[in-house]
Design brief:
The protein contains 16 helices and 11 strands. By secondary structure, the chain is of the alpha/beta class. It has one domain: Glycoside hydrolase, family 3, N-terminal domain (TIM Barrel), CATH 3.20.20. Strands 7-6-3-2-1-11 form a 6-stranded parallel β-sheet. Helix 2 links the parallel strand 1 and strand 2. Helix 5 packs parallel to helix 6, helix 5 packs antiparallel against helix 15 and helix 11 packs across helix 12. The longest helix is centred in the first third of the chain and has 18 residues. The chain is globular.
């Protein structure tokens, strides 16, 4: 059923602390691939754990019975949807200042362990943008450094830490958001870099992360007129097919940034954006804050499969690719009983590591253990 194949391509936001009847129906009837959590969905660790358990249980009512992606933005610093009593982690800039890849690995590993304990299986992190413009407040201390080589060196460690914790990392924001001045939540950033300039700078950390088993990447809502004068990277066939897949030889899944951002919606409708994103090669479409957008997008995608640019056979193939990805990356989707995992929440060793990184030093006993342990 084409609706069920299309549903696997959507990641949607939720309204509150528990699932509404309408949200359950939307997820089950449309075979929705996953959800994203925000502060509005979070009250306490116990509540998040219960919410994730409820979400994951819905898969048994769905045609594929595949794991449901439960995602969040938990980078550390100011981008952290869940706060204490979970460990409060510093921004990535502190890791860049420290410049210890082992510390970077343990940062994401221990952060990931706490997310996994709650039932969250995908984190929209790490941010491996290079902070190339000091006036860029959108990225700022979310980036490791302004040094391309340093960011490239740490990208691998950050990815491996999440993978060891059994949380899927999503590297962002391809092809690099570190030079922009405009917040894409509000308007469309425009950058004049050439492809050669991007390949020798902001794309470098992404290529390194791809070699380190990063197989989910987020596209940025940025227009590069020297490369594609008509579409931002999210909706650009040049960026998706030529640069990401051909030039960078990327074979993993591709997700859009939130398709409700004004960078896109100021000039295109929800329906146009959804169809264009899938048409150029995105695998997952992200809808964060507009409750009606997923349903509008779904109807537009169905129509585009019937008499538009989307080919049902290709949509079915992509849906299978997504399902295989989830089955291989979310091997234990059931959320463990809270009594079994509560000890991981705000674990003392996690807090010590966070405090040490914040202070600019890492005690040897905290990082001496092997990454293979």
């Amino acid at each position: 059923m084409i609706r069920h194949h299309l549903g696997q391509h959507l990641i949607i936001g939720l309204s509150g602390l528990t699932l509404t009847t309408d949200e359950k129906k939307m997820i089950v009837d449309n075979n929705i691939g996953g959800v994203i959590l925000f502060a509005r969905n979070i009250q306490s660790p116990e509540q998040v754990h219960a919410l994730c358990s409820e979400i994951q249980s819905l898969r048994h009512q769905m045609p594929d019975k595949a794991p449901i992606i439960i995602s969040i933005d938990q980078e550390g610093g100011r981008v952290a949807r869940i706060r204490a009593p979970l460990t409060v982690w510093p921004p990535l800039k502190k890791l860049g200042d420290l410049d210890n890849p082992t510390a970077s690995f343990h940062f994401t590993h221990r952060l990931g362990l706490e997310l996994k304990a709650l039932g969250i299986n995908l984190n929209f992190a790490p941010c491996i943008d290079v902070y190339s413009n000091p006036k860029n407040t959108v990225i700022g201390d979310r980036a490791l450094s302004s040094d391309f080589d340093l960011v490239t060196k740490h990208a691998s460690a950050l990815v491996r830490g999440f993978i060891k914790a059994e949380v899927i990392p999503c590297i962002k924001h391809f092809p690099g958001h570190g030079n922009t001045l405009i917040d894409s939540h509000e308007d469309l950033p425009i950058e004049n870099a050439t492809l050669d300039q991007l390949m020798s700078s902001s794309i470098m950390p992404f290529k390194k992360a791809f070699k380190s088993r990063a197989d989910l990447v987020m596209l940025a809502h940025i227009l590069f007129p020297q490369i594609d004068p008509n579409f931002p990277a999210t909706l650009s066939e040049i960026f998706v097919q030529k640069i990401l897949k051909a030039d960078c030889r990327y074979r993993g899944l591709i997700i859009t940034d939130d398709l409700g951002m004004k960078a896109l919606t100021k000039s295109m409708s929800t329906s146009e954006i959804a169809v264009r994103a899938l048409h150029v090669g995105a695998d997952l479409l992200l809808y964060c804050n507009e409750p009606e957008a997923p349903a509008v997008a779904m109807e537009a995608l169905l129509e585009a499969c019937g008499n538009g640019p989307l080919k049902p056979d290709l949509i079915q193939q992509n849906a299978q690719k997504i399902l295989q990805f989830k089955l291989s990356r979310i091997k234990n989707p059931d959320v463990l009983p809270y009594s079994d995992v509560r000890h991981l929440i705000g674990h003392e060793s996690h807090k010590k590591l966070s405090e040490a990184i914040m202070a600019g030093s890492v005690p040897q006993e905290l990082i001496s253990e092997s990454e293979d342990n």
